[in-house]
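Field reference: sequence -> structure
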Amino acid sequence: MTSLILLMEKIKSIETREELYLEIPKGGIGAEIGVCKGINSMPLYFISKPSKMYLVDIWTEICPNGADWPRMGDPFLWYDDHKGLVEKIFSEEIKDGSVELRKEYGSDFLNHLEDDSLDWVYLDSDHRYNCIAIEINLAIQKVKKGGLIMGHDYSTVPQTWGSSIIRAVNERIQNNDVKMEAITLETWPSYLLRVL
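Structure field:
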């Protein structure tokens, strides 16, 4: 049994998603899908130091499918048009071209990118299975081999998205499209996948 454990590649445990971002090679081209107010975008940008980063969100005042998901007391999960706020946060980076805001669904954004055009992507938009599965499948095509697919909320939440994120991620691992390299130790963990 000990020899089997030694042969297995271990998945890193990383304290926070901000520390996870230290795994991203500097100077790459990346995207965050599901930006909301830009709370995560700031450390993601300033830690990864990309040459270009796309910030993608639908930035709408109501959930487009009419669903009223419980927000578990977290005002950051409210739908609203926060694009103006994110534009203010990244005004200098938008001017110099290192940040580009895209008001569209993550799947539409990814679908229109050229294959192998991203070095990394961070997924944190619609957590329903069909949506996250499509985004991960598209990300595998758009992120270069050896690049990173990361995302938030790698956990089960029965009252909202159930097991959808874990299921969508694990299916791609089982299909040998990606391998899991790290998971954060937070209440709402992030994951890091390497594209094979």
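Note: The chain has a mean pLDDT of 90.
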